[in-house]
Amino acid sequence: MTSALARTGVIRPDPKDPSPLRIDEALVRKMLVLFIRDEIAKARLARAVVGVSGGVDSAVTVALATLALGAENVLGLFTPYRSSSAESRDHARELSRQFGFALEEVPITKQVDAYFTGLNKKVDRVRIGNKMARERKSIEYDRSWPDGIVLGTSNKTELLLGYGTQFGDMACGINPVGDLYKTQLRELALSIGIPEAIVRKPPTAELWEGQTDEGELGFTYADADLVLYHMVDRRLRPAELIEHGFDAQLVTRIREMVRRNHYKRVMPLIAKLSLRTVGHDFLYPRDWEAD
Amino acid sequence: MSIRIAIAQCAPALGAVKRNLEMHEKWIARARAAGARLVIFPELSVTGYYLKDLAADVACAADDPQLARIAEASRDIDISAGFVERSADAKLHIAQGHWSGGKLVHVHRKVYLPTYGIFDDGRYFGPGDRFETYRWAGGTTGVAICEDLWHVSTPYLYASAGATIVLAPSASPGRGIAEGGDLGTAESCRLMDRFYASYLTVYVVYVNRVGHEDGIAFWGGSEIVAPDGTVAARAPEFDEELLIGEIDPELVARERARNPLLRDEREDIVLRNIAGRLGLPFDRRD
Questions:
Q1: Which of B81, B90, B140 is nearest to B108 (CA)?
Q2: Whole-model pTM?
């Protein structure tokens, strides 16, 4: 919440001081509700579709959407695979009851399994995970027709690390939570009344049994967020962060993930040939409005 | 005698000029009904801000017939509004016009075009090359379009040229969400407004827009800060508002009597210092 005290002191990069990540939740909530409302109106659409996994990112997204558009204009889609837990379903349902939006369950096990069975050979679990993410997104897009927009749920940490599936969970029409680190998103979640059980449970994509984000990444969101905040938001170089006591291996690893996965954050490259080319020098705003 | 002014804290549509002109007429009517002598619109209010290549599509000469609707509406209320000006030599400028008595009486072209971070003005527009004051019923006035105001020299030059009012039409994107303060941009702008108003003993009329363009939120928070540093009127953040406030020329006089910083200002030292450093000729008067 906004404090009566003005900010004092210099923000120092300190691996033991997570306070620079603290946000003014009331301000952020207001900005994001207006963002969803305004950008959907500009696109001349009326509804939002959100893939509700039972996790905190989609919980915040769907809650903000109901605040912005009214629950009657929000569709939540719970799209379980056979590895999805009963707890995830319970959490998705709990959110639907609490915020009043319609929740539909569309299982994806059959189509995903049918595809890979047809291939007739063993495939890496990462491929199955990617397929699931893209299957879910194709359902969200289908359900958004004709007057809805798919809301993105990728947070800033995932976007910067590239920890997501391109054209899968990363795909969306607009993303209200993409400029909030995971730590900040949790803080916002609690302030808008997302149940503690959802906010505190270990984040997982549930692409295979026992998978957790932090287990797969090999570091915690709390640690990564602080490194990313000073590296990205405050523009400190990796060497400076290490000088200030951040773990050298962690800093180097994160920096390399940011670099390696940058392609996921930008539009596909188009070969420049003509005098004017989409994306290169044909540059119109997306919110290009009609008279 | 105080002069009543109105700030149109509105949300122009991006690239939709006809729609925006209709929107202007509505706000002008409301300002007129509220008894205002001047209504000020934000930066690029006729066109929207993040135009990119649309800038060339919506540009027009300052005397273009499409702006005649604003001129027409200015017969009984002064209007300050923003548009993309195509100059006689076909350069594009971010411009703010002042219409009065049915005619365009002043145009300021944005001098400082931010081209860093979330801004790309310098890619699409050419810079203005002067800061000129003009007079209207409210007094001698200078216009600082958004980034112009962030340069200390802008309000300084206006104040030293006799301005008692600095109009600052803006399209300021809101950012900075850290706990323990206001929106980061709001803190910076309010500090500027209050500092300039107090130390140059002028009215600072900060006119910001609201709404979104390509995911960026304009934060509003328009305000009139008096030369004694008090906030005479302030609009809410993020919501549309027709903000009404008063400009009191007597307060300027009283503040300058109490606090004669401008009277004592040594422009000659400023000029000698800068001229010397740049190797420009400077004739001493003493």
A1: B81
A2: 0.95
